[in-house]
Amino acid sequence: MNINMFIDGEWRESLSGGRKDILNPATGEVIASAASGTVEDTKLAIKAARGAFDSGIWSNLSVDERADYLYKIADRLEEKAAEIALLETENNGKVIRATTNVDIPVTIQTFRYYADQIKLMEQESYTRADSSETIIIQEPVGVCGLIVPWNFPLMIAAWSIAPALAAGNTVVLKPAEVTPVSVYKLFGIFEEVGLPAGVANLILGPGSKMGNELAESFEVDKVAFTGGTQAGQSILRAAAGNMKKVTLELGGKSPLIIFDDVDFETAVENAMFGIFHNAGQVCTAASRLLVHETIYDRFVERLAERANKIVVGNGESETIEMGPLTNESHMIEVLHYIKSGIEEGARLVCGGNRITENGLDQGFFIAPTIFADVNPNMRIVKEEIFGPVLVVEKFKDEEDAVRKANDSIYGLAGAVFTEDIDRARRVVSKLRAGITWINSYHLAYVDSPWGGYKQSGIGRSLGAIGLEYFMELKQINIHQKANPVGWYAN
Ligand code: NAD
């Protein structure tokens, strides 16, 4: 597969001619060749988006017309769902049951949701004592740079591109360098449904240069970024030049709290799903498990026993429960974290190694890994690892659980498992996190705002508010005719 950039309605090579091999992380095989662009390509894409926005070709359409495009995009995605799910599995490594049942359906739902949502937007109006009127309208922000990560390449792209387009913006999208395939297919659909040239542009290449240009450019009005906290900080700084609007969906180190009144096996399975889903490469991964001291030893033992049985392999098979890490350098980084955990004295209770047996030696697999008896100063407890690595701590009581749960620079997600629903609500109300669950984990709903407290980000994706972050508010104060002010004597 030959993947190029899509700029001003045309498929283009990079101006520099640069290309990058795209790998299947389960096999190490090259599955595609993608253009690898530069700052110059980024400038071209921004120019196209600027021109399309300023011409009004998109923002002047009625909301019904824009919504129709989004419905058509969703319909085409639905027709190609099986093909795109398989491509996502091949490019990202995530298991086919996830791409088939989560990534692609949620992507489709997101386009439909924002098509519905833009039609529901209402304007406010006030009539004054002097019969003048104020109306408050929402307008698109302008040119939006959308920068997305590799862990849910298509779904997270949809979380920003669907509301951005629904609102009337034009966009330049930059996927992560290693996972361009599904997004490339999406842009093929944009072309098929006849999205006007320049409205949606795709650039491919390194984030530090191309993403940074999107954040710095005075021709870009907003950046919506999903990725690591460090890159988020760099974007915030780069965006200061023209004071562009910025929303940031960043990392996490989310706690899952288990009280001793739970159904033991169900809680164990949920804790496994919390951390090992998508091989731990989920921003909300429940990477810190807090277990009540009375069941801690038994819980750790059972968790390790079951984690050792997780079926790891090439996610193209329906029976596989956990796939590889998405790229080699990330796998190496995760292995370094595991080494640091051992060196800092944490007790490794399972995993801790790369898996190379049974034909997995060319892929980037790490065994489900659990550390017990950790302390809050260890790197594996403080830092986001973004892999299948869990740390387990014990707690004494409710207060201790909340204190430990909140002891993080992050505040993306958190969960509580207990059959005492009053206690669950009390605890959740004290968690400093934007996404919380009681007796479940990882469920995401397109109608509910997604994002974090503290260093996990700024703003929210999804929900009605996810659309508002792509709009500006304007007040229009209307007098039918001008009246004298009566302020000046002469
Ligand atoms: P990353 O920060 O390395 O890259 C994300 C994107 O930003 C990529 O497209 C990359 O090319 C680009 N980029 C990198 N440096 C940049 C810079 N200086 N300026 C502009 N763009 C830059 O993240 P990743 O490794 O792709 O993804 C993993 C991270 O994303 C984790 O920290 C995870 O928690 C986070 N994440 C957060 C959410 C959320 O909704 N909060 C969702 C998914 C992933």
Structural write-up:
The chain has a seven-stranded mixed sheet with strand order 15-16-17-14-13-19-20, with helices on both faces. Strands 10-9-8-11-12-22 form a six-stranded mixed sheet, sandwiched between helices. The chain is globular, with a radius of gyration of 24 Å. Strand 11 (222-226), helix 8 and strand 12 (245-249) form a beta-alpha-beta unit. The chain has helices at 39-55, 63-79, 81-92, 96-120, 153-166, 181-192, 207-216, 229-238, 264-276, 296-307, 328-343, 379-382, 398-405, 421-430, 463-468, and strands at residues 2-3, 5-7, 10-12, 19-23, 30-35, 124-127, 133-140, 143-147, 170-174, 200-202, 222-226, 245-249, 255-258, 288-292, 347-350, 369-372, 389-395, 410-411, 413-417, 435-438, 453-454, 457-458, 471-478. The model has no long low-confidence stretch (mean pLDDT 98). It folds into two domains: 2-250 and 456-476, Aldehyde Dehydrogenase, Chain A, domain 1; 255-438, Aldehyde Dehydrogenase, Chain A, domain 2. It has 490 residues and is of the alpha/beta class. It has 15 helices and 23 strands. Helix 1 (39-55) runs parallel beside helix 7 (207-216) and helix 9 (264-276) packs across helix 10 (296-307). It binds nicotinamide-adenine-dinucleotide (NAD). The site of nicotinamide-adenine-dinucleotide (NAD) has 32 residues, from helix 7 and helix 8.
